[in-house]
Amino acid sequence: MTDRDTGRETNRDTERNPGPDATTPSRSPAKPSATTPQASPRAPHARHTLRRFLTNPLAVVGTTVLCVVACCALVPSVVAPHGPEWVAYVGAGDGRLTLSQSRSLPHPPAFGDPFFAPLGTTASGHGVLTELVYGARTALLVGLAAALASSLVGVPLGLLSGYYGGTWLDEAIQRLVDVLYGVPFLPFVVVLVAMRGASTTNIVLAIAATAWLNNCVVVRGTTLSLTRRTYVDAARAAGLPARRIVTRHVLPDVLPIAAVLLVQDAATAILAHATLAYLGLADVTTASWGVMLQQVQATGYVFTAPWWLLPPGLAIACLVAAFYYVGHAVEEVTRTD
Protein backbone atom coordinates (compact mmCIF):
# COMPACT_ATOMS: atom_id res chain seq x y z
CA MET A 1 0.00 0.00 0.00
CA THR A 2 1.40 3.37 -0.98
CA ASP A 3 1.60 6.44 1.24
CA ARG A 4 -1.27 8.01 -0.72
CA ASP A 5 -3.52 5.05 0.00
CA THR A 6 -2.56 5.15 3.66
CA GLY A 7 -3.54 8.83 3.84
CA ARG A 8 -6.93 8.10 2.28
CA GLU A 9 -7.64 5.37 4.85
CA THR A 10 -6.64 7.74 7.65
CA ASN A 11 -9.03 10.42 6.35
CA ARG A 12 -11.89 7.89 6.17
CA ASP A 13 -11.23 6.80 9.80
CA THR A 14 -11.22 10.43 10.91
CA GLU A 15 -14.57 11.08 9.21
CA ARG A 16 -16.12 7.95 10.81
CA ASN A 17 -14.65 8.56 14.33
CA PRO A 18 -14.11 12.25 14.81
CA GLY A 19 -12.04 13.23 17.83
CA PRO A 20 -13.32 15.11 20.82
CA ASP A 21 -12.01 18.42 19.52
CA ALA A 22 -13.99 18.02 16.31
CA THR A 23 -17.34 17.35 17.93
CA THR A 24 -17.17 19.36 21.15
CA PRO A 25 -17.71 23.03 20.45
CA SER A 26 -15.49 25.43 22.34
CA ARG A 27 -17.38 27.19 25.11
CA SER A 28 -16.36 30.54 26.45
CA PRO A 29 -17.00 31.38 30.08
CA ALA A 30 -20.62 32.39 30.66
CA LYS A 31 -21.06 36.08 31.06
CA PRO A 32 -23.50 37.37 33.64
CA SER A 33 -26.72 38.57 32.17
CA ALA A 34 -27.43 42.24 32.24
CA THR A 35 -30.69 41.51 34.02
CA THR A 36 -29.12 39.29 36.70
CA PRO A 37 -29.50 41.08 40.07
CA GLN A 38 -26.24 41.53 41.86
CA ALA A 39 -25.84 42.50 45.49
CA SER A 40 -24.57 45.97 46.18
CA PRO A 41 -21.07 46.02 47.67
CA ARG A 42 -22.36 48.34 50.39
CA ALA A 43 -25.06 45.92 51.55
CA PRO A 44 -22.73 43.43 53.34
CA HIS A 45 -20.85 46.30 54.94
CA ALA A 46 -24.11 47.86 56.18
CA ARG A 47 -25.30 44.55 57.58
CA HIS A 48 -21.97 44.01 59.30
CA THR A 49 -22.09 47.49 60.83
CA LEU A 50 -25.68 47.00 62.00
CA ARG A 51 -24.80 43.63 63.51
CA ARG A 52 -21.88 45.12 65.41
CA PHE A 53 -24.05 48.00 66.62
CA LEU A 54 -26.75 45.67 67.92
CA THR A 55 -24.18 43.54 69.74
CA ASN A 56 -22.66 46.55 71.48
CA PRO A 57 -23.80 46.54 75.16
CA LEU A 58 -24.17 50.32 75.33
CA ALA A 59 -26.18 50.33 72.12
CA VAL A 60 -28.50 47.63 73.43
CA VAL A 61 -29.14 49.48 76.70
CA GLY A 62 -29.62 52.84 75.00
CA THR A 63 -31.89 51.46 72.28
CA THR A 64 -34.02 49.63 74.85
CA VAL A 65 -34.54 52.78 76.91
CA LEU A 66 -35.36 54.80 73.79
CA CYS A 67 -37.90 52.20 72.68
CA VAL A 68 -39.61 52.26 76.08
CA VAL A 69 -39.78 56.07 76.07
CA ALA A 70 -41.02 56.03 72.47
CA CYS A 71 -43.84 53.64 73.42
CA CYS A 72 -44.84 55.95 76.28
CA ALA A 73 -44.78 58.93 73.93
CA LEU A 74 -46.75 57.29 71.12
CA VAL A 75 -49.42 55.43 73.14
CA PRO A 76 -49.53 57.01 76.60
CA SER A 77 -53.16 55.99 77.16
CA VAL A 78 -52.13 52.32 76.87
CA VAL A 79 -49.12 52.55 79.19
CA ALA A 80 -50.44 54.94 81.85
CA PRO A 81 -52.73 53.49 84.55
CA HIS A 82 -55.06 56.51 84.36
CA GLY A 83 -55.90 59.41 82.11
CA PRO A 84 -54.33 62.85 82.63
CA GLU A 85 -57.55 64.12 84.22
CA TRP A 86 -57.61 61.43 86.94
CA VAL A 87 -57.53 62.67 90.55
CA ALA A 88 -57.09 60.51 93.63
CA TYR A 89 -60.24 59.61 95.62
CA VAL A 90 -62.61 61.21 93.09
CA GLY A 91 -61.77 59.27 89.93
CA ALA A 92 -62.30 61.57 86.97
CA GLY A 93 -62.13 64.67 89.17
CA ASP A 94 -65.82 65.58 89.03
CA GLY A 95 -66.22 65.48 92.82
CA ARG A 96 -64.70 67.26 95.80
CA LEU A 97 -62.06 66.10 98.20
CA THR A 98 -62.82 66.00 101.87
CA LEU A 99 -60.50 67.75 104.32
CA SER A 100 -58.86 64.50 105.41
CA GLN A 101 -58.37 63.43 101.81
CA SER A 102 -56.78 66.71 100.76
CA ARG A 103 -54.44 66.56 103.78
CA SER A 104 -53.25 63.09 102.73
CA LEU A 105 -51.97 64.47 99.41
CA PRO A 106 -49.41 63.96 98.05
CA HIS A 107 -50.12 60.33 98.78
CA PRO A 108 -47.41 57.65 98.77
CA PRO A 109 -47.70 54.69 96.38
CA ALA A 110 -50.99 52.82 96.71
CA PHE A 111 -52.06 49.62 94.99
CA GLY A 112 -55.84 49.61 95.18
CA ASP A 113 -56.56 50.88 98.69
CA PRO A 114 -57.94 53.53 98.57
CA PHE A 115 -56.91 53.89 94.88
CA PHE A 116 -54.35 52.59 92.41
CA ALA A 117 -51.24 54.79 92.09
CA PRO A 118 -48.04 52.71 91.78
CA LEU A 119 -45.77 55.77 92.16
CA GLY A 120 -48.03 57.79 94.45
CA THR A 121 -49.73 61.09 93.70
CA THR A 122 -48.85 64.76 93.47
CA ALA A 123 -50.13 67.49 95.76
CA SER A 124 -53.10 68.01 93.42
CA GLY A 125 -53.99 64.31 93.45
CA HIS A 126 -52.73 63.37 89.97
CA GLY A 127 -50.85 60.11 89.54
CA VAL A 128 -47.07 60.46 89.36
CA LEU A 129 -46.77 57.52 86.96
CA THR A 130 -49.44 59.01 84.72
CA GLU A 131 -47.67 62.37 84.54
CA LEU A 132 -44.39 60.56 83.97
CA VAL A 133 -45.78 58.65 80.99
CA TYR A 134 -47.47 61.68 79.43
CA GLY A 135 -44.33 63.76 79.96
CA ALA A 136 -42.28 61.38 77.81
CA ARG A 137 -43.84 62.83 74.66
CA THR A 138 -42.63 66.34 75.48
CA ALA A 139 -39.12 65.17 76.35
CA LEU A 140 -38.74 63.12 73.18
CA LEU A 141 -40.29 65.84 71.01
CA VAL A 142 -38.02 68.57 72.37
CA GLY A 143 -34.91 66.42 72.08
CA LEU A 144 -35.49 65.20 68.53
CA ALA A 145 -36.87 68.50 67.18
CA ALA A 146 -34.01 70.58 68.55
CA ALA A 147 -31.41 68.04 67.39
CA LEU A 148 -32.84 67.86 63.87
CA ALA A 149 -33.09 71.63 63.58
CA SER A 150 -29.51 72.14 64.74
CA SER A 151 -28.24 69.43 62.36
CA LEU A 152 -30.14 70.83 59.38
CA VAL A 153 -28.45 74.19 59.97
CA GLY A 154 -25.02 73.26 61.30
CA VAL A 155 -24.09 70.36 58.99
CA PRO A 156 -24.70 72.15 55.64
CA LEU A 157 -22.94 75.30 56.85
CA GLY A 158 -20.04 73.21 58.12
CA LEU A 159 -19.75 71.48 54.74
CA LEU A 160 -19.74 74.79 52.89
CA SER A 161 -17.24 76.35 55.27
CA GLY A 162 -14.91 73.36 55.11
CA TYR A 163 -15.04 72.82 51.36
CA TYR A 164 -14.42 76.49 50.62
CA GLY A 165 -11.89 76.84 53.43
CA GLY A 166 -9.89 80.07 53.32
CA THR A 167 -12.37 81.88 51.08
CA TRP A 168 -14.71 84.75 51.93
CA LEU A 169 -17.58 82.27 52.43
CA ASP A 170 -15.62 80.37 55.06
CA GLU A 171 -14.65 83.60 56.81
CA ALA A 172 -18.27 84.86 56.84
CA ILE A 173 -19.61 81.63 58.35
CA GLN A 174 -16.88 81.44 60.99
CA ARG A 175 -17.32 85.08 62.02
CA LEU A 176 -21.05 84.43 62.45
CA VAL A 177 -20.24 81.42 64.61
CA ASP A 178 -17.82 83.48 66.72
CA VAL A 179 -20.43 86.17 67.31
CA LEU A 180 -23.16 83.71 68.30
CA TYR A 181 -20.78 81.83 70.59
CA GLY A 182 -20.58 85.00 72.67
CA VAL A 183 -24.35 85.08 73.28
CA PRO A 184 -25.16 83.51 76.69
CA PHE A 185 -27.82 80.83 76.49
CA LEU A 186 -29.97 81.59 79.54
CA PRO A 187 -30.38 85.36 78.96
CA PHE A 188 -31.14 84.62 75.31
CA VAL A 189 -33.93 82.23 76.33
CA VAL A 190 -35.31 84.70 78.86
CA VAL A 191 -35.53 87.42 76.21
CA LEU A 192 -37.10 85.04 73.70
CA VAL A 193 -39.68 83.81 76.21
CA ALA A 194 -40.48 87.38 77.22
CA MET A 195 -41.03 88.33 73.58
CA ARG A 196 -42.81 85.24 72.25
CA GLY A 197 -44.16 83.48 75.35
CA ALA A 198 -43.17 80.36 77.29
CA SER A 199 -44.11 77.69 74.75
CA THR A 200 -42.42 74.44 73.82
CA THR A 201 -41.83 75.71 70.28
CA ASN A 202 -39.93 78.75 71.52
CA ILE A 203 -37.80 76.55 73.78
CA VAL A 204 -36.93 74.29 70.83
CA LEU A 205 -36.01 77.30 68.68
CA ALA A 206 -33.84 78.73 71.43
CA ILE A 207 -31.98 75.45 71.92
CA ALA A 208 -31.52 74.90 68.18
CA ALA A 209 -30.29 78.48 67.68
CA THR A 210 -27.31 77.78 69.91
CA ALA A 211 -26.75 74.04 69.34
CA TRP A 212 -25.94 74.28 65.61
CA LEU A 213 -22.70 76.18 66.33
CA ASN A 214 -20.87 73.10 67.60
CA ASN A 215 -22.11 71.05 64.64
CA CYS A 216 -20.81 73.64 62.20
CA VAL A 217 -17.34 73.77 63.79
CA VAL A 218 -16.92 69.98 64.02
CA VAL A 219 -18.20 69.31 60.48
CA ARG A 220 -15.99 72.10 59.10
CA GLY A 221 -12.87 70.54 60.61
CA THR A 222 -13.76 67.11 59.24
CA THR A 223 -14.51 68.52 55.79
CA LEU A 224 -11.20 70.38 55.70
CA SER A 225 -9.31 67.13 56.28
CA LEU A 226 -11.37 65.25 53.70
CA THR A 227 -10.88 67.84 50.96
CA ARG A 228 -7.11 67.32 51.14
CA ARG A 229 -7.36 63.65 50.20
CA THR A 230 -6.28 62.28 46.85
CA TYR A 231 -9.68 61.16 45.58
CA VAL A 232 -11.13 64.64 46.13
CA ASP A 233 -8.24 66.19 44.20
CA ALA A 234 -8.81 63.66 41.43
CA ALA A 235 -12.51 64.54 41.30
CA ARG A 236 -11.64 68.21 41.00
CA ALA A 237 -9.13 67.49 38.25
CA ALA A 238 -11.80 65.52 36.40
CA GLY A 239 -13.96 68.64 36.32
CA LEU A 240 -16.74 67.45 38.62
CA PRO A 241 -18.88 70.25 40.07
CA ALA A 242 -18.51 71.13 43.73
CA ARG A 243 -22.02 69.97 44.57
CA ARG A 244 -21.32 66.47 43.26
CA ILE A 245 -17.94 66.26 44.99
CA VAL A 246 -19.47 67.22 48.33
CA THR A 247 -22.48 64.91 48.05
CA ARG A 248 -20.63 61.85 46.71
CA HIS A 249 -17.14 62.05 48.16
CA VAL A 250 -17.31 64.19 51.32
CA LEU A 251 -20.81 63.78 52.76
CA PRO A 252 -20.67 59.95 53.21
CA ASP A 253 -17.68 60.36 55.54
CA VAL A 254 -19.34 63.24 57.40
CA LEU A 255 -22.65 61.45 58.05
CA PRO A 256 -21.36 59.21 60.91
CA ILE A 257 -20.03 62.27 62.73
CA ALA A 258 -23.31 64.08 62.07
CA ALA A 259 -25.23 61.13 63.57
CA VAL A 260 -23.13 61.29 66.74
CA LEU A 261 -23.70 65.03 67.00
CA LEU A 262 -27.44 64.49 66.48
CA VAL A 263 -27.88 62.19 69.46
CA GLN A 264 -25.65 64.38 71.62
CA ASP A 265 -27.73 67.44 70.72
CA ALA A 266 -30.89 65.53 71.61
CA ALA A 267 -29.52 64.74 75.07
CA THR A 268 -28.40 68.35 75.58
CA ALA A 269 -31.81 69.66 74.49
CA ILE A 270 -33.62 67.42 76.98
CA LEU A 271 -31.42 68.64 79.81
CA ALA A 272 -31.84 72.26 78.72
CA HIS A 273 -35.63 71.97 78.55
CA ALA A 274 -35.79 70.34 81.98
CA THR A 275 -33.62 73.13 83.41
CA LEU A 276 -35.76 75.85 81.86
CA ALA A 277 -38.95 74.17 83.07
CA TYR A 278 -37.54 73.93 86.59
CA LEU A 279 -36.78 77.67 86.45
CA GLY A 280 -40.35 78.40 85.37
CA LEU A 281 -39.47 79.38 81.78
CA ALA A 282 -41.42 76.56 80.10
CA ASP A 283 -45.11 76.01 79.46
CA VAL A 284 -46.51 74.72 82.76
CA THR A 285 -49.73 73.57 81.07
CA THR A 286 -47.81 70.93 79.08
CA ALA A 287 -46.95 67.68 80.83
CA SER A 288 -43.18 67.38 81.11
CA TRP A 289 -40.64 66.01 83.54
CA GLY A 290 -39.12 69.41 84.17
CA VAL A 291 -42.53 70.82 85.13
CA MET A 292 -42.96 67.95 87.58
CA LEU A 293 -39.69 68.90 89.29
CA GLN A 294 -40.73 72.54 89.35
CA GLN A 295 -44.03 71.64 91.01
CA VAL A 296 -42.26 69.57 93.67
CA GLN A 297 -40.00 72.50 94.47
CA ALA A 298 -42.82 75.07 94.39
CA THR A 299 -45.06 73.12 96.77
CA GLY A 300 -42.23 72.39 99.21
CA TYR A 301 -42.34 68.58 99.10
CA VAL A 302 -38.73 68.05 98.02
CA PHE A 303 -37.76 66.17 101.18
CA THR A 304 -41.15 64.78 102.25
CA ALA A 305 -42.37 63.24 98.96
CA PRO A 306 -39.50 61.31 97.36
CA TRP A 307 -41.96 59.26 95.28
CA TRP A 308 -42.82 62.53 93.52
CA LEU A 309 -39.28 63.90 93.22
CA LEU A 310 -37.22 60.87 92.15
CA PRO A 311 -39.20 59.47 89.15
CA PRO A 312 -38.92 62.55 86.87
CA GLY A 313 -35.27 63.07 87.81
CA LEU A 314 -34.44 59.43 87.10
CA ALA A 315 -36.41 59.54 83.85
CA ILE A 316 -34.42 62.55 82.63
CA ALA A 317 -31.14 60.92 83.62
CA CYS A 318 -32.03 57.61 81.92
CA LEU A 319 -33.16 59.24 78.67
CA VAL A 320 -30.10 61.48 78.46
CA ALA A 321 -27.82 58.52 79.22
CA ALA A 322 -29.59 56.45 76.55
CA PHE A 323 -28.88 59.08 73.89
CA TYR A 324 -25.24 59.29 74.97
CA TYR A 325 -24.94 55.48 74.94
CA VAL A 326 -26.29 55.31 71.40
CA GLY A 327 -24.00 58.12 70.29
CA HIS A 328 -20.97 56.42 71.85
CA ALA A 329 -21.85 53.14 70.17
CA VAL A 330 -22.28 54.81 66.77
CA GLU A 331 -18.95 56.56 67.19
CA GLU A 332 -17.21 53.34 68.15
CA VAL A 333 -18.65 51.34 65.25
CA THR A 334 -17.90 54.00 62.63
CA ARG A 335 -14.42 54.66 63.99
CA THR A 336 -13.34 51.01 63.85
CA ASP A 337 -14.87 50.61 60.40
**Mean pLDDT over the full residue set:** 81
Provide the structure class.
mainly alpha
- Which strand order do you get reading across the main beta sheet? 1-2
What is the number of strand segments? 2
Helical content stands at 55-70%
How many H/I helices? 14
How many domains in all? 1
CATH class wording: Mainly Alpha
Could you say what the CATH topology is called? Answer: MetI-like fold
Strand content of the residues, in percent? under 5%
Biggest sheet record: 2 strands, antiparallel
Supply Rg: 33 Å
Q: Strand-and-helix sequence, N→C?
A: HHHHHHEEHHHHHHHH
Quickly give the CATH architecture. Answer: Orthogonal Bundle
Q: Low-confidence parts, pLDDT < 50 over ≥5 residues?
A: 19-41
The CATH superfamily is known as MetI-like
Global morphology: elongated
Q: End-to-end distance, in Å?
A: 80 Å
Can you put this structure into words, describing what you see?
- By secondary structure, this protein is mainly α.
- The protein has one domain (about 70-335): Orthogonal Bundle (MetI-like fold).
- It is built from 14 helices and 2 strands.
- It has helices at about 5-15, 20-25, 40-55, 55-75, 75-80, 100-105, 130-165, 170-180, 185-195, 200-225, 230-235, 240-280, 290-300, 305-335, and strands at about 110, 115.
- It is a multi-pass membrane protein.
- This is ABC transmembrane type-1 domain-containing protein.
- Belongs to the binding-protein-dependent transport system permease family.
- Its main location: membrane.
